[in-house]
Amino acid sequence: MMRPVFQKRMCLLGWLLMIVFLSGVSLVVAQSDSCPTFVEAALDAAAESCGALGRNQICYGNNAITAEFSETAGRFEVPGDRADVVDLMRLTTAPLAPDAQTWGVAMMALQADLPDVVVGQLVTFILFGDAAVEPDASAAGYDAPMQAFRLSTHFTGISCDDVPESGLLVQAPEATTVNFLINGVEVKVGSTAMLQMDGDDLTVNTIEGFVEITSAGATEVVGEGLSARVRRGQRPIRAAITHARQVERAPWRLLPRRLRAFPPPPQGQTVSLNDCFAPTARAAARSPVWVRAGESVVLRFAIPHDSLELARIIHQELTNTLRINGQAQRIYTRLGPWRGVRDEYGEGFGVEFYWLIEAPLAGDLRIDLSSRSNSGLPIETGVDGPDADRRPETLPAFRQINCLVRAR
To answer: pTM to 2 decimals?
Structure first.
């Protein structure tokens, strides 16, 4: 039988543990509730502090940041301070800590290897969270400021409404490709992407366009909505669809060109538009595709190709619009170029488009997909496509194909 004093102490200990437990629960709930508000305020502060950056400038976006510069650098201590990237020796941003109201955010505007002929064309870097960058002066052939650098990011496990803890956002100007050497890995950015380091592994998540990563003599192309990993000195791992919600919640709105993250392909009955399209609506009606009414339908359209240059043209110079019974639909997600889930494109690549029809009622769904050149003129690509004619492809100024999906 317990002695009264010991029993009393055990009872008191139990209450203390309960109080600690409940305090911890309260802290987590409060942090979860306040975190989105804090993040939005931090991004607003960074956007206000770092507008209109000049070439090869770095800006203190949000607290807290530690920067090491050469002796010629000026003051860099509070949000809004700016300095020349050429003077930077090391930059470290603070971890996400909503309870302490800190989240380090820094912005850079770089020329990299872009030509001088177009004024205002700059690469934008957003470094955030528990991250650090430092120039790699030993890299030959990467001579522009911060064109070669070492990146580190860390993850502490804090939960903040799926906001990524740390990373580096990179956005190149439209219709350009910019070359970097990151932790010894060659990275060509023709898009917008988030880069993170997990130990010795560099992870590339592409949001817009595509990124090429080269290591150990092998190149992997990472298209929209895809992710790939590479360890220095090793071959890149094949690109795969990323399902990380944190990629969607990264601070993309700080970038000069607004965009939205493409989610992974939706789930449901899949209809391959490549297999059912016809040149006219009348021809499509002769071979309808049947689906189950009341269940989600995923429309998928793929454009196979052998050339990255052709992929760039498809991404940059063509606008594809899908209509269902005359109503335009938003693209749910777009991938590519990539080799497919089961390498269905072999050594070539494919650009894939997806649309979602949620629980259609019984009846006909008249689908037309139009492709229009942004210039309104045919596009002479100068690139031989995947067909067998061995001649450069000419993309028409406008093309429309049709499909009839019948739900019952």
So the answer is: 0.84
